[in-house]
């Protein structure tokens, strides 16, 4: 990036590290699936003799893009990706009750979608000791402590963040794959994406987690136990380089892990975590943030000794991430939002140059003007056999459609999401009308030759 942009980004993270009193902080900006800027402040070494940080003459150890930090709840969207892969394979449906795939619990009536979107009403934390600072138990041990009282709110009624829900989804993945959730994650996501420095425990160069005293510049080491059955809710460690690949995936650079439209569906709002105009929400495994006209997707994370955030604006393709080794202090999410804003303000992304694309010639006869009653719509052919239906006025119901074969397409956006678009043809094979969710679109308004619901007045249009 330009030197002025890089300095503005560096100054922002330097200010956050200093005012938030983080022992160290790393960050990056991601565009087009790649890191376009990264920076670090602070040091990895800390006092071991009680003499205070920075007092010795020895050379300090600075973090870099290959330094591992614990990313906490950013583990959750990785579990969600594994669940959506199972869905796309046909192994489960999101509306399936948990009992169908993980029998023998008191949570069997909750659906997979509710667990993914934190709308199950399930308790936020696991019964027993503070799980983030205690050695974890196995799944039978956790399941035995979950009873009917563990569901605190009406399932499907409202957003209620649940770490237990993702511990449960991790076990669901393990049952389907016949291996641990972590092995499934390595095989299906981490290795294909080249995320070889993301692991359940620190490996090689890593940051130590610290608590910073609120009223003195001293630190205390935090424990980092294995969370056992709760590990799918927050166990992973990662690096700037690896976490940038996650940011790119959320933005649509899926690397073949999932279809881009599946990831886009994960970014759709399933629940809102606010009372009036929503500013925070949740999709199917992704946190959503509404900020200065943007809707960003990704996730935040925290564990004792660590803070992390990774978000992207799918509309501009600009994302950012940040990690710090402190329990509290820096406003990590606010920092990430500011980095995205600074990057787009100083260097707005240029539109991708237009160029001709391969379009199935058979789709051309479907393009152009159609009418829903008297309202004109346009149909545009997209690559890969997709269609785009949108009002000629620019206002109203619009959707893209993915081909299903035999003159059928599935809606992907808005009002028509999940609905089937069908082509009605004349005896000569010419497209005569489109059928969509009981509506009939015709080349001319209310074409009397088409099967218009309710019929068309035989006297036709009149003054």
UniProtKB/TrEMBL annotation:
Domain Beta-lactamase-related: 12-330
PANTHER family membership: D-ALANYL-D-ALANINE CARBOXYPEPTIDASE, D-ALANYL-D-ALANINE-CARBOXYPEPTIDASE/ENDOPEPTIDASE AMPH
Superkingdom per UniProt: Bacteria
Location of the DUF7586 domain: 359-443
Name assigned to this protein: Beta-lactamase family protein
Lineage of the species this protein comes from: Bacteria, Bacillati, Actinomycetota, Actinomycetes, Pseudonocardiales
Alphabetical list of InterPro entries matching this protein: AmpC-like, Beta-lactam-related, Beta-lactam/transpept-like, DUF7586
Pfam family membership, one: Beta-lactamase
Region Disordered, annotated ranges: 41-64
């Amino acid at each position: 990036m330009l030197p002025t942009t890089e300095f503005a980004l560096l100054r922002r993270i330097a200010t956050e590290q200093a005012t938030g009193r983080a022992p160290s902080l790393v960050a990056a900006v991601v565009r087009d699936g790649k890191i376009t800027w990264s920076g670090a402040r602070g040091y990895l070494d800390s006092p071991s003799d009680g003499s205070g940080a920075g007092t010795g003459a020895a050379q300090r150890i600075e973090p870099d893009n290959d330094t591992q930090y614990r990313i906490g709840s950013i583990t959750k969207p990785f579990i969600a990706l594994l669940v959506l892969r199972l869905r796309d394979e046909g192994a489960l449906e999101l509306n399936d009750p948990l009992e169908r795939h993980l029998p023998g619990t008191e949570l069997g009536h909750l659906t997979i979608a509710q667990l993914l979107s934190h709308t199950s009403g399930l308790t936020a934390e696991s019964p027993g000791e503070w799980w983030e600072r205690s050695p974890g138990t196995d799944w039978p041990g956790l399941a035995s402590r979950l009873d009917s009282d563990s569901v605190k709110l009406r399932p499907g009624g409202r957003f209620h963040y649940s770490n237990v829900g993702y511990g449960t989804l991790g076990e669901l993945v393990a049952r389907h794959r016949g291996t641990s959730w972590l092995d499934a994650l390595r095989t299906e996501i981490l290795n294909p994406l080249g995320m070889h420095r993301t692991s359940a425990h620190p490996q090689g160069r890593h940051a130590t987690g610290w608590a910073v005293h609120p009223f003195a510049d001293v630190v205390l080491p935090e424990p980092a136990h294995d969370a056992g059955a709760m590990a799918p809710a927050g166990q992973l460690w990662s690096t700037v380089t690896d976490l940038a690949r996650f940011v790119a995936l959320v933005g649509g650079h899926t690397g073949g892990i999932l279809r881009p439209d599946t990831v886009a569906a994960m970014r759709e709002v399933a629940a809102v975590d606010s009372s009036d105009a929503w500013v925070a929400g949740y999709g199917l495994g992704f946190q959503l943030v509404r900020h200065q006209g943007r809707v960003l997707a990704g996730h935040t994370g925290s564990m004792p000794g660590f803070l992390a955030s990774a978000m992207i604006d799918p509309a501009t393709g600009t994302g950012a991430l940040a990690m710090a080794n402190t329990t509290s202090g820096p406003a990590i999410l606010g920092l990430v939002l500011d980095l995205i804003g600074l990057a787009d303000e100083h260097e707005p992304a240029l539109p991708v140059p237009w160029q001709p694309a391969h379009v199935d010639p058979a789709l051309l006869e479907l393009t152009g003007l159609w009418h829903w009653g008297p309202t004109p719509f346009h149909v545009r052919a997209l690559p890969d056999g997709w269609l785009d239906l949108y009002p000629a006025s620019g206002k109203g119901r619009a959707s893209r459609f993915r081909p299903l074969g035999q003159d059928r397409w599935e809606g992907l956006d808005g009002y028509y999401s999940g609905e089937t678009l069908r082509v009605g043809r004349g005896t000569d094979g010419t497209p005569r009308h489109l059928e969509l969710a009981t509506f009939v679109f015709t080349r001319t308004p209310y074409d009397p030759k088409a099967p218009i619901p309710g019929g068309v007045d035989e006297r036709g249009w009149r003054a």
